[in-house]
Design goal:
By secondary structure, the chain is an alpha/beta fold. It has 19 helices and 20 strands. The strands form four sheets. Strands 14-13-12-15-16-17-18-19-20 form a nine-stranded mixed sheet, sandwiched between helices. Strand 5, helix 6 and strand 6 form a beta-alpha-beta unit.
Length: 507
């Protein structure tokens, strides 16, 4: 599990660890860690390969300069572009120059700096660290534009320069794709978007900041243990799961298992207009191998034809015993659909609401209030940005994690906000960021699959021996769904049905 912290938490831990630091010892160790990742990213052979350092003021720039000195020892041709020469780290600069490193002052020679970036084999971003907040100053922004337009991969130190380390403000990668010109003066004013380095990899020391988990610009996250992480008594601001965590949480069948000890999930999905939603959602639930899947809706015949093991009925009233419900994908928003949703919300078991179910909640907010009076079982809401805005129009989606936390508190439900970085929040303040996925998971039907995955996990958690609470089920389900998408894409398969094949092994 990756634990992420606020900048204040990380700074506090760093201060305690650096009290006795002499002669930049910790910075030199950090530099070796940076150089080790850089050497993995450089093409072979290393001697003669061109590395460009983007060097800002203070310790982040010092890390880059010391790392550049190490790379010079390995024969790389290393050039440091100084964005603020007067405030460059003195010790790092001296070590770099002793190894024969070359310098460019970006404030006087921007054209030369941009030219060097276009020819680089690797770019190391040491412009800004944890103490910085967007937007970037003009010189740095121009360098970022050029770095993102260059063909070389970027390795960021601490964080990609330009992102908010706490994740409170989103940044767009600075590139030609958003109308920017490399080396040109960035636009400014209320209409301009903040820009950030689009890194292939980011190395951080001890523990990441929350913003690193939230920003897609982070790329591959590398964590070097320099003894700078907060101790275990400090609660993380957010978490992210890895495959090992998910394997631990996935339900396992035992010798004495039966359908009710493995989880029975009920699904209300699909309609005459959207028949495929029922198949997608049910197929995902079946792929997770629960004890039993019950379907209740107008597509019962089609569902049973595809999966004979599913027990189907036309109405949730007649469905039989379940240990969790999923309602919403493609079910419509007419009177019969609203009645079915009401039946599901009246059940004293965990309930996941998605898609059309969320639309009905937005138009009938009293439904959740009545649910709270009838049941203490958890609710999971899985909106995309548009559905979220309809449910909580007062919350600012520019700060996704804060908005998701507020929505979870207000609704007393686990809220999963879909996106490039899906975020999940619980009413008690716990939060997670999902790091798996692929862009085509934003296509039609994949949300129906996600609902079925999480619903199956909710049912498993509501068994006598179940250990998954609703928050963990949502986090694990998002990871499984995203990893299945990655594996399907790697096999050249796209489209929501392609996920079924990979769900059972994902994570």
């Amino acid at each position: 599990m990756i634990s992420a912290y606020t900048v204040d938490q990380l700074r506090s831990a760093e201060r305690a660890a650096l009290v006795d630091d002499r002669d930049d010892a910790v910075m030199r160790r950090a530099a070796y860690a940076v150089a080790a990742v850089a050497l993995r990213m450089l093409p072979r052979p290393v001697p003669g390969r061109r590395v460009v350092l983007l060097v800002g003021p203070g310790n982040n720039g010092g890390d880059a300069l010391y790392a550049g000195a190490v790379l010079r020892r390995r024969g790389a041709d290393v050039l440091a572009v100084l964005a603020d020469p007067e405030r460059a780290h003195a010790g790092g600069l001296a070590a770099f120059q002793r190894r024969g490193g070359k310098l460019i002052d970006a404030t006087d020679a921007m054209t030369a700096a941009v030219s060097a970036l276009t020819r680089a084999d690797l770019i190391i971003d040491g412009l800004l660290g944890l103490g910085a907040r967007p937007p970037l100053r003009p010189t740095m922004a121009r360098l970022v534009l050029a770095a993102n337009a260059a063909p070389a991969p970027v390795l960021a130190i601490d964080l990609p320069s330009g992102i908010d380390p706490d994740g409170h403000r989103a940044a767009e990668p600075a590139s030609e794709g958003n109308g920017a010109t490399p080396g040109a003066e960035p636009q400014s004013g209320p209409e301009s978007e903040p820009v950030a380095v689009d890194a292939a990899s980011t190395i951080t020391f001890g523990a990441p900041s929350t913003g690193l988990l939230l920003a897609p610009q982070t790329g591959r996250l590398e964590i070097a243990d320099l003894g700078l992480a907060p101790d275990q008594r400090v609660l993380p601001d957010a978490i992210a799961l890895d495959d090992i965590d998910v394997a631990f949480h996935r339900p396992r069948l035992g010798r004495d298992s039966d359908k009710y000890s493995s989880g029975v999930v009920g699904i209300v999905a699909g309609s005459a207009k959207y028949p495929g939603a029922a198949l997608l959602c049910v197929g995902a639930a079946v792929s997770l191998r629960p004890g039993l899947v019950r379907y209740a809706g107008p597509q019962a015949a089609a569902v049973v034809q595809r999966w004979p093991e599913v027990v189907a009925s036309d109405d949730p009233v007649d469905a039989g015993r379940v240990q969790a419900w999923v309602a919403g994908p493609g079910m419509g928003t007419d009177g019969p659909a609203l009645r079915r949703l009401n039946v599901v919300l009246g059940a004293d078991v965990p309930v996941l609401i998605d898609a059309d179910g969320l639309t009905m909640l937005a138009h009938n907010p009293a439904l959740l209030v009545r649910r709270e009076r009838r049941s203490h079982a958890p609710v999971v809401l899985t909106p995309h940005a548009g559905e979220f805005a309809r449910l909580w129009p007062e919350l600012d989606l520019g700060d996704r994690l804060t908005a998701c936390r507020a929505a979870a508190r207000q609704s007393d439900a686990v809220v999963l906000l879909k996106g490039d970085r899906t975020v999940i929040a619980a009413p008690d303040g716990r939060a997670a960021v999902n790091l798996t996925g692929t862009p085509w998971l934003a296509s039609a039907g994949t949300g129906d699959v996600l609902a079925g995955v999480i619903g199956s996990l909710l049912a498993a958690g509501n068994t006598p021996g179940g250990t998954l609470d609703a928050f963990t089920a949502a986090v694990v389900g998002a990871h499984i769904h995203g990893r299945a998408g990655q594996r399907a894409a790697a096999a050249g398969k796209v489209g929501a049905p392609a996920l079924w094949e990979y769900l059972s092994a994902a994570g």
